[in-house]
Write a structure and sequence with these properties.
Blueprint (H helix, E strand, L loop, with lengths): L2 H4 L18 E3 L5 E3 H10 L3 E2 L6 E2 L6 E2 L1 H15 L20 E3 L4 E3 L5 H5 L1 H4 L3 E2 L19 E3 L4 E3 L13 E3 H109 L4 H10 L22 H28 L17 E3 L5 E4 L19 E2 L8 E7 L6 E7 L16 E8 L2 E4 L5 E3 L7 E7 L4 E6 L4 E6 L8 E6 L12 E4 L6
Antiparallel strand pairs: 1-2, 1-5, 3-4, 6-7, 6-8, 9-10, 9-11, 12-13, 13-24, 14-23, 15-20, 15-24, 16-17, 16-23, 17-18, 18-19, 20-21, 21-22
């Protein structure tokens, strides 16, 4: 194409009817150009012969004039559009500019553009050839040993072979037509594609779940921050208020002391003033040398002014003993109230993770007596003859729940009212259930234990003694698997008893219940799995 023609745009060689590059372009009297077929068909279906572009009407059907320039330019444009680009398969037959191949023939082992493909579409002998989408290196489809087309598949050796291979190296092998194996493999690929799509969908769903969890986490974080700011603001205000009250109390005591001292000083100064007046009179009389005057005046000398006995008068510094302690105690009361509110809110949140838990009789020690509904367990006095299956505790009077948990969070409540000993918590699936057991996290046990009345400890390995203000009657157990957290609550007091933190859970967790031994009837009350009544 010349330099001048390069300035022309592709749009100038598009038919306004078919919107494609001109094919056999013709010009009508108004000067507009169209594909010959397009304008002919347009006038065939319309009553008037009208130009589709300028709408000029012709009384008689105009004679179509071949546009040689447009025809040549359109041909060049079509050729430039169809020329094989890097990475595309070129036509084997084209000379000069290689056009893009439309199909490859597996019989001829050549690739053809639209023009050179026509014999394969029209000639009967060539119609039987197998055409596929254009591919490069068709020679690779020949057997390197026999120079024949690879049209069979050896299932024994899992490779493509030619006809001659089946009577030589692959004789008596399981050989099928390439098309059959192709269809089989394609079906497997379809199945694989479906499975991959399902995997992708599951992962997209997991992404949504993770994003949702993050959003929930953000909401929880915002709520916790708001609650924390509210609590600490209240505490800060309480501390500042208590500090101000403490300072005012101390200053008020000091002011009273100062006022008392000022009163004493004023009274003393008045007495000093009166005494000074008297001493002046005495001094004047004592200097007189007139005997008669001294004797006469002495009797008329004013009596000594009344004075106070100041011997026992003291101004003691005010005592501040207990002032700071009382202020701190008052602050502790405020803090205790705030802590109670926090624990109430925390308990309310963890109760949202409540699950239904029932006891598993296959794990129960033979001394234990379970209710029919699996919600109660108490110690008995008789060893029952039960199968010694691997799941059963044979020495420790324990029983596990049927339910297990390996993700997320869960919560349940157990009534311990009336008992003098009990043990509660969670255990991992692989724990030892035979013989004596040391309750500790390293052995797979996260539990708290009431040893005797008002004596509690967390079996943390080493154990931690717990100081509780009141004896719990109902204990809540909360577990966050991913967080590695096991917490125990006094439900009625809305107080945290103890938390195991930083735990690493890799197995299923089972709730554990131990009502301990009967102890001559003193500890006969049952442990009862209670329905969770969400706190208001």
């Amino acid at each position: 194409m010349s330099a001048a023609s390069c300035l022309l745009t592709e749009d100038q060689f598009l038919c306004s009817i078919c919107l494609d590059v001109f094919t056999d372009p013709v010009t009508i009297p108004c000067g507009h150009n169209f594909c010959k077929t397009c304008i002919t068909q347009h006038w065939d279906v319309n009553v008037q012969c009208q130009c589709p572009n300028c709408k000029k009407v012709f009384n008689t059907r105009p004679e179509l004039q071949i546009n040689t320039f447009n025809s040549e330019m359109a041909a060049q444009l079509r050729q430039s559009q169809q020329a094989a680009k890097p990475g595309e398969v070129p036509c084997y037959v084209c000379t000069g500019t290689k056009l893009k191949a439309m199909k490859s023939c597996l019989v001829c082992l050549d690739s053809y553009c639209e023009t050179h493909l026509e014999p394969h579409l029209t000639r009967s002998g060539l119609k039987r050839h197998q055409l596929i989408d254009p591919v490069e290196n068709l020679e690779d489809r020949k057997c390197t040993e026999h120079d024949k087309l690879l049209e069979l598949f050896c299932k024994t050796d899992q490779m493509c072979v030619c006809m001659l291979c089946t009577v030589s190296d692959h004789k008596k092998h399981d050989v099928v037509p390439l098309k059959k194996e192709y269809e089989g493999k394609k079906a497997k690929l379809g199945k694989t594609e479906t499975e991959i799509q399902q995997m992708i969908q599951k992962r997209r769903l997991k992404i949504q779940q993770i994003k949702h969890s993050v959003e929930l986490g953000e909401e929880d974080a915002d709520r916790e921050i708001a609650d924390g700011v509210q609590v600490f603001t209240a505490l800060k205000e309480s501390v500042e208020r208590s500090q101000a009250e403490l300072i005012d109390t101390i200053k008020e005591k000091q002011r009273k002391t100062e006022k008392q001292a000022e009163g004493f000083i004023k009274e003393l100064e008045q007495e000093i003033c009166e005494l000074k007046k008297r001493i002046t009179e005495v001094e004047q009389l004592s200097r007189s040398e007139d005997h008669l005057h001294l004797l006469q005046s002495f009797t008329s000398l004013k009596a000594a002014p009344p004075t106070k006995d100041w011997t026992g008068v003291r101004v003691s510094p005010p005592s501040y003993e207990g002032t700071v302690v009382r202020a701190v105690n008052q602050l502790e009361e405020t803090l205790s109230k705030q802590k109670k509110k926090l624990f109430e809110a925390e308990l309310k949140r963890v109760q949202q993770s409540a699950v239904d838990v029932t006891l598993d009789p296959d794990t129960a020690n033979p001394y234990l007596i379970l209710s029919h509904d699996g919600k109660q367990v108490k110690p008995g006095n008789v060893w029952k003859n039960l199968p010694d299956n691997p799941e059963r505790f044979d020495h420790c009077v324990n029983v596990l729940a049927k339910q297990s948990f390996s993700s997320g969070s869960f919560y349940y409540e157990v009534q311990v009212k009336g008992k003098t000993k009990w043990d509660l918590g969670v255990v991992r699936e692989s724990i030892n259930r035979k013989g004596k057991i040391t309750l500790a996290p390293q052995n797979g046990y996260w539990t708290i234990w009431m040893m005797n009345e008002n004596e509690y400890k967390a079996c943390a390995g080493p154990s931690v003694r717990l100081s509780l203000k009141s004896q719990p009657e109902k204990v809540g157990v909360f577990v966050d698997y991913e967080e590695g957290l096991v917490s125990f609550y006094d439900v009625d007091a809305a107080a945290l008893i103890y938390s195991f933190t930083g735990c690493c859970f890799t197995e299923k967790l089972y709730p554990l219940f131990s009502p301990c031994l009967n102890d001559g009837g003193k500890n006969s009350a049952p442990l009862i799995i209670s329905p969770v009544n969400h706190t208001e």
